[in-house]
Design brief:
This protein is α/β, with parallel strands linked by helices and 355 residues long. The chain has two domains: 122 residues, Aspartate Aminotransferase, domain 1 (Alpha-Beta Complex); 222 residues, Aspartate Aminotransferase, domain 2. The chain is built from ten helices and twelve strands. Strands 2-8-7-6-5-3-4 form a seven-stranded mixed β-sheet, with helices on both faces. The relative contact order is 0.18.
C-alpha cells in the first residue's frame, strides 16, 4: 500500500511509539493524578510531554491536553464566552458546526477563487471570537492568520486558530489567543490533542468531574498518549527544516507527474505537502476503486462517504460537478519519491479509464 493521505492522518513516528511503550507496560500504568511514587512518575512524564508540545506554540500561554483538536476547538469556542462569532467559509466542521451551534447568526468570511481569506477582511462589529485555520485541510492554502488576529483584536474579540495542518511545519501565529492542534497530524498517536491558551484568558470547562487537567478537562490523562505526543512534537522541532526540504522536493516532483490536471487552491500560498487536483469529467468513485493499493482521498476524511460536494471547493466557486472531480494527495516525512511516481502512474492510467 502506498500511503498518500497525510492530511487525514500521519504515520506514527517510531520515536513516538518507543516513548509510549514504557507507559503501557507493567511499570508505567499508574494514574498520573495519584500521589504515590508511580503516580508521580507518570505525572512527571505528562509534564515533560507538555513542555515538548509547548515548544510548538508561542511563549506566554499554557497547554491543555484534550482528546484531539475537535475537543480543543469546542473548548475554545464554547468556553471563551463569546456570543458573536466569525469564521472562514473553509473551516473544518469542528469549527463551522460548533460556531454555528454557539451563534446561529455566525458571520462567514468568504475566500477568493484561490482559497484565501482576505487579510483585510471586515470583522463585524461586536464579534467576540474570530476563528480561521492556519492551513486548510482539503486544499492546503495558508491563511493570513496573523493579520486576521489583528483584525479580531481591533474588533474587540479573541482569535482562535485551528493549526492542525500547520503545527510542527510552520511557525504558529504569534498573536493568536488560542490555538488547537492534534497529535496524529504530526506523527503522534490518535486520541490526544492540545489547546494552547494565551495567559490571562479564562475558559469555562466543557467536561465536569474531577477537574484534573487545569480545571478545564476532567478525566484521567494517559501518560502513554502524552509521551507519544511529546516525542512527536520534539521531532517536529528538530526535523522541521529537513522535513520542509523533503516535502518541497516531493511537491516539485508531484506537480510534474499530473499533466492536464487543475490545481485547486493557490500554488504558492499553501503547504506543499497537499496536492488537491481535479480533472474534468472524472469519476472519482471509479478511480478510487481502481486504485485500491493507493491511499488517497476524494476530500477530507471527516466528510468522506457523505456524498456531499466539498464545502471548501464550493467556497472557491467550483460547481458541485467540478468539486466532485477532485482528489487530494498528501505526503510528508516518510513518503518516498518512487512511491509518488508509482502512485501517479497508476492514478493517471485509472483516470484515463474513468473519464
Amino acid at each position: 500500500m502506498i500511503y498518500l493521505d497525510y492530511q487525514a492522518t500521519t504515520p506514527l513516528a517510531p520515536e513516538a511509539r518507543e516513548a509510549m511503550l514504557r507507559w503501557l507496560g507493567d511499570d508505567g500504568f499508574a494514574n498520573p493524578h495519584s500521589p504515590h511514587r508511580p503516580g508521580r512518575a507518570a505525572a512527571a512524564a505528562v509534564e515533560v510531554a507538555r513542555e515538548q508540545v509547548a515548544a510548538l506554540f508561542p511563549p506566554g500561554g499554557r497547554v491543555v491536553f484534550t482528546s484531539g483538536a475537535t475537543e480543543a476547538l469546542n473548548l475554545a469556542i464554547l468556553g471563551c464566552g463569546a456570543r458573536r462569532m466569525a469564521v472562514s467559509a473553509i473551516e473544518h466542521a469542528a469549527v463551522l458546526d460548533t460556531a454555528r451551534f454557539a451563534d446561529p447568526a455566525c458571520a462567514v468570511l468568504q475566500v477568493s477563487a484561490k482559497g484565501l481569506v482576505e487579510a483585510d477582511a471586515t470583522i463585524p462589529e461586536g464579534t467576540g471570537l474570530v476563528a480561521v485555520m492556519q492551513v486548510n485541510n482539503e486544499i492546503g492554502t495558508i491563511q493570513p492568520v496573523e493579520a486576521l488576529a489583528e483584525a479580531a483584536h481591533a474588533a474587540g474579540g479573541y482569535f482562535l486558530c485551528d493549526a492542525v495542518q500547520g503545527a510542527g511545519k510552520l511557525a504558529p501565529p504569534a498573536n493568536a489567543d488560542m490555538i488547537a492542534i492534534s497529535a496524529h497530524k504530526l506523527h503522534g498517536p490518535k486520541g490526544i490533542g492540545a489547546l494552547w491558551v494565551r495567559d490571562g484568558i479564562q475558559l469555562a470547562p466543557l467536561i465536569h468531574g474531577g477537574g484534573q487537567e487545569q480545571g478545564l478537562r476532567s478525566g484521567t490523562l494517559s501518560p502513554a498518549l502524552c509521551a507519544g505526543f511529546g516525542a512527536a512534537a520534539a521531532l517536529c522541532t528538530s526535523l522541521r527544516e529537513s522535513d520542509a526540504q523533503h516535502v518541497e522536493s516531493l511537491w516539485t516532483l508531484a506537480r510534474s507527474l499530473f499533466p492536464g490536471w487543475t490545481l485547486n487552491g493557490d500554488a504558492d500560498q499553501r503547504w506543499h505537502g497537499n496536492l488537491n487536483i481535479r480533472r474534468e469529467g472524472l469519476d472519482v468513485a471509479r478511480l478510487m476503486s481502481e486504485c485500491r493499493t493507493i491511499a488517497f482521498s476524494a476530500g477530507s476524511a471527516c466528510a468522506s462517504g457523505s456524498g456531499r460536494p466539498s464545502h471548501v471547493l464550493r467556497a472557491l466557486g467550483l460547481s458541485d460537478r467540478e468539486a466532485k472531480t477532485a482528489i487530494r494527495l498528501g505526503f510528508g516525512r516518510y513518503t518516498q519519491a518512487g512511491d509518488l511516481e508509482q502512485a501517479a502512474a497508476a492514478i493517471g492510467a485509472a483516470a484515463d479509464g474513468a473519464l
